[in-house]
Amino acid sequence: MTKQVTAWIQAAPMALVLLAFLVAPIIMIVIVSFWGATEYSIYPAFQFDNYEFLFGSPVTYTVFANTFKYALITWAFTFVIGFTVAYFLAFEVRSLKWQIALFLLCTIPFWTSNIIRMISWIPFLGRNGLANSTLISWGVIDEPLEWLLFSDFSVILAFVHLYTLFMVVPIFNSMMRIDRSLIEAARDAGASGWQTLRHVIIPLCKPGIMIGSIFVSTLVMGDFITVRFMSGSQRANVGRLISNDISLLQYPSASATAVVLLITVLIVIALLLRLVDIRKEL
Amino acid sequence: MTTISKIRYSRRALLKTGGAALAASALPAPMVWGQESKNITLRQFGTGVSNLNEVATKVKEDLGITLEMTALDTDSVTQRAATQPDSFDIADIEYFVAKKVWPTGNLQAMDATKIANYDKIVGIFRNGKLTPESTIAQGTAPHTVGFVEGPDGTSFVDNESGWMTLIPTIYNADTLGIRPDLIGRPITSWTELLNPEFKGKASILDISSIGIMDMAMVCEAMGEITYGDKGNMTKEEIDKTIAIFTEAKKAGQFRAFWKTFDESVNLMASGEVVIQSMWSPAITAVRSRGIPCVYQPLKEGYRSWGGGIGLSASLSGMELDAAYEYINWYLSGWVGGFLMRQGYYSAVPETSKEYMSENEWGYWFEGKESTGDITSPFGDKLAGAGEVRDGGSFYDRMGAVACWNSVMEENQYMVRKWNEFIAA
Lengths: 282, 424
What we know:
The structure holds two protein chains of two kinds.
Chain A (H helix, E strand, L loop, with lengths): L2 H30 L3 E2 L4 E2 L5 H8 L1 H35 L3 H12 L6 H6 L1 H5 L4 H8 L14 H26 L2 H9 L4 H30 L2 H6 L7 H10 L3 H25 L2 H4 L1
Antiparallel strand pairs in A: 1-2
Helix pairs in contact in A: 1-13, 3-8, 3-10, 8-10, 9-10, 10-13, 12-13
Chain B lengths: L6 H20 L14 E7 L5 H11 L2 E7 L1 H10 L6 E5 H7 L5 E2 L1 E2 L26 E2 L23 E2 L2 E12 L1 H4 L18 E4 L2 H15 L12 H16 L3 E5 L2 H9 L5 E4 L1 H8 L6 E3 L5 E11 L4 H15 L2 H7 L4 E2 L2 H4 L5 H7 L9 E2 L5 E3 L10 H5 L2 E4 L6 H13 L1
Parallel strand pairs in B: 1-2, 1-3, 6-17, 9-10, 9-11, 13-17
Antiparallel strand pairs in B: 3-13, 4-13, 5-7, 8-11, 8-12, 8-13, 8-14, 15-16
């Protein structure tokens, strides 16, 4: 057997799996997005109704804008928090034993389900919840803060809470690979702590930052359940549009929205990848 | 109406069923009716309202039929009935869902002559009239989708043709739930839902087909819109209705929208919301936590819903016989009593009477002052002596129905507008 054939055979299983479970479903979604729907059934067709309605409705643009807003703000917070935590773990904690222990500590919340972690905010932030009653008893506020729950604030809070670890892990990983002698060299060359961070650590962490950013932005842009619960169904992102359509049997219209969302997310990732060549850096 | 999960009940129900299953295997229950149906399994799905494990346990005991239940929310129920005909034998669906699902041909018409208690079924489900004097409410009134012209009928007929689409099982009249302790004044009209006094403390349910009706009740009560038929709005009526609520939403009237039963319970019990669309068992659930909650009768009337069981088109032979046997058993009283003690109504109330105490019958059905504690079938105390059911008797409540849950001709348009309302 030639080398080439062997390579093809070796790649085949993965390729088949991806073809069957990733490519085929996406093709199906694209096809269905051109179909028509009645109240209780969908029928094959080739029409642009779904896209026409989607692009014709001002709500679509607000919802897409909202989705970007959530992604951007969540990204900013998870990046700052994630980078700080990773920096602390990688450079401030000296012994490997403690690094591993503290890192595992970060993952403990993941032992419960996403939804439970999210919902547990609701009684905490509620009008008569722990946060409000504590603030009132401290005399900080007289009236309960309404915007703590069922608002953009609570949605973003939950996102940040849920997804920061996805930022911590890849950045921590990148930081651990940085050759310590580089930092020593920077110091010997007279760089201040800030300069070292700016000119040595951050550039070397870029792949980790990018991977984390891709995680967070795709997770937030594809989410619907967090938005639904934390906003009390008052806010919407694209995921919610899709889930509403599905629950009302409007599969073609849901597919059309999904296709547009998919393209949007791919564009975002393409932009991110232009900033850093992950393959090269890894 | 629709309910996803009754968290509070299901755990207990599970324990009970588990216990009963143990008991049943240790002491084989006497087969009262058909021996031959002993080994038959019927797969039923429906909303959490009537898909109760107790019913499955009892039917196993009485008939020997194994009932496999799946509880879903209203949207998923419609979805399954319409798209997965082979996944069920018995569909426990709402009448307005039947209107959507019947054209798919996934259900078969039932022969009314095989239904023993057919003559005793409440008039609402037969000719539409609760009493001979009643007027028929707007919306998808059950009798309008209750009959088809024959065994293979595809279109609904407006008379008692003897071929039924669904056998009515459970129904109720819905209204707004309020927290009287936090409101502190009488509430008498649907308009209060949009009263700025309750800014940030109101809620409505996020299930388009039902939510739009609650909206319509409000808009009509405000005098903003006069509907030709609330259950079958025109595009302009839908636009206007949604516009009024979108404006209120943007002004911050709503604290949240809810989609599942337990969400509505939590919103009310935590005091996040003081007035909202609500379902009867949710009121009960709030009350059983010791929090005052009233299912407020309003002068404009109720929004009503009804459910029934339908047979899968693929049922035949012994399974079909078993299904009829099950239906007859369903209407024979035990289930009715079980449901009525939770605040629903049974399609054949008189057979249920035997399965309720005089006090229970008086409280739930006749609207009389209770003479002792009223407890749910699960043992929770719902009311003490001297209390009266919100809204009064069966005839007071079901007689004041202003509209039925429905599917409109402009449903798809409505759904899209609803989606915009939620996203607005």
